[in-house]
Write a structure and sequence with these properties.
The chain is mainly beta and about 400 residues long. It is about 10% helix and about 35% strand. It has six helices and 27 strands. Strands 11, 16, 17, 18, 21, 22, 24 and 25 form an eight-stranded antiparallel β-sheet that branches. Strands 8, 12, 13, 19, 23 and 27 form a six-stranded antiparallel β-sheet that branches. Strands 3-7-6-5 form a four-stranded mixed β-sheet, with no helix packed on it. A hairpin with a 6-residue loop joins strand 6 and strand 7 (about 115-125). The longest helix is centred in the middle third of the chain and has 8 residues, at about 170-175. The N and C termini lie far apart (about 55 Å). About 40% of the residues are buried.
Length: about 400
């Protein structure tokens, strides 16, 4: 795989992709899109838009989401690859993807000097997880050197769901190997409420962050994915909140500890008389727009979008040095469409942050939120939960 090179001083003004524009085109070796052409797409997929996967620059695993029980023995995925590159097996070749079988594709640059390996699979529907304990984590190498923590829940076959994301990849752009893994905004907490947990800390992004008006990075953790390609040019668009969820959520619970730091600063680095607060909240929203196109919420509309149908949010979290239970109901602004729910037309976002206004680069460096044992209580289990109370 060709190394991802980053010229930091220049990259803050350009679009980050896996192979830069100032490199020869014949050195690029990426899959940019994966898609499937079938006669009746909704026989296999929940939505027509599920036939297309936009592949992020730092992703090597491509997954198509399909309905349960469909025939996957002869699927022929197609790929848009970087100019001049070749792919093996052949683009559009037919393979057996049944039983969660993945197929490995290798993309080779036009000059033959670089290659990148991708794993492609068709994943049948499995009921969404509702309980999250953060026991599966590992260190990954950053694009700019250094290592940071990644969390993922596991499927029944032991494969990773890649369902949790943080802003650690963006922090890596500014700090790289100058920051140890435990100095990143989102790190593993050895002693959580039960087993391991997650520690989120608002960090300084150093001179390069200040250069582009992004002086701090709040520690965050969210259901969704982080788009490294948007981290430098449109930071609020880099956080893609939410994953499909086919149950009606009723309540969000979690355990947390929070300590605020002094010297709260605004987006310009000015110290102002404000107290920092943490936040843990859930958002349930329609994941296709009025034109039927798939969509996600971002840092600029996660609480304001007209797509939102329910929010569970008690507001800012105050200080507590003991593990404290959070329990907040989802408040709905409209009725649920049961057919749309069954077709995975809604997504659920869970967001945790060490600084309430961290997305606007406001907060106190050193504020710390510890979180563990997040649970989403949904309609079919509500009666049992109420009886236990």
């Amino acid at each position: 795989m060709k190394p991802l090179k980053i010229l930091l001083a220049v990259a803050f003004c350009g679009v980050l992709v896996s192979c830069f524009k100032d490199e020869p085109l014949n050195a690029e070796c990426d899959i940019e899109q994966a898609y499937v052409h079938v006669d009746n797409p909704t026989d296999i997929f929940y939505s027509v838009t599920d036939t297309l996967v936009n592949v992020l620059s730092d992703v090597n695993n491509i997954t198509f989401s399909v309905k349960s029980g469909v025939d996957l023995t002869a699927m022929s995925p197609l790929f848009r690859i970087t100019q001049g590159a070749t792919i093996s097996p052949a683009n559009g070749s037919t393979h057996d993807f049944s039983n969660n079988t993945s197929v490995t594709y290798t993309v080779t640059s036009e000059d033959g000097k670089w290659n990148r390996v991708y794993s492609v699979k068709f994943e049948e529907y499995t009921p969404p997880l509702t309980e999250f304990s953060f026991e599966h984590y590992y260190l990954t190498d950053g694009a700019n050197g250094g290592q940071y923590y990644v969390w993922s829940d596991l499927n029944e076959d032991g494969s990773e769901m890649n369902n949790w994301a943080t802003g650690n990849p963006g922090f890596n752009l500014s700090m790289g190997s100058s920051a140890a893994p435990d100095e990143y905004p989102s790190v593993m907490l050895p002693n959580g409420y039960k087993g391991a947990g997650v520690q989120l800390t608002t960090r300084s992004t150093g001179p390069l962050g200040a250069m582009v008006g992004r002086r701090l990075a709040a520690g965050n953790l969210f259901l969704g994915y982080f788009d490294l390609g948007s981290a430098l040019t449109n930071t609020l668009q880099s956080t893609n909140f939410g994953l499909p969820f086919d149950h009606k959520p009723l309540r969000l619970t979690a355990y947390y500890k929070y300590s605020r730091a002094d010297s709260y600063q605004d987006e310009n680095g000015n110290i102002i008389d404000v107290q920092d607060m943490g936040n843990i909240y859930g958002v349930f929203y329609i994941n296709h727009d009025a034109n039927g196109d798939a969509m996600v919420l971002h840092g600029d509309d996660i609480k304001t979008s007209s797509q939102i149908v329910a929010i569970a949010d008690i507001g800012g979290l105050d200080e507590t040095d003991e593990w404290t239970e959070l329990s907040v109901d989802f408040v709905y602004n409209r009725e649920i469409d049961e057919d749309l729910l069954a077709a995975q037309g809604y997504s659920l976002a869970i967001v945790c942050t060490s600084s309430f206004y961290g997305a606007s680069f406001r907060g106190a460096i050193g504020s710390c939120l510890c979180v563990d044992e997040i649970n989403v209580i949904w309609d079919e289990s509500s009666d049992e939960e109420i009886e236990e109370e």
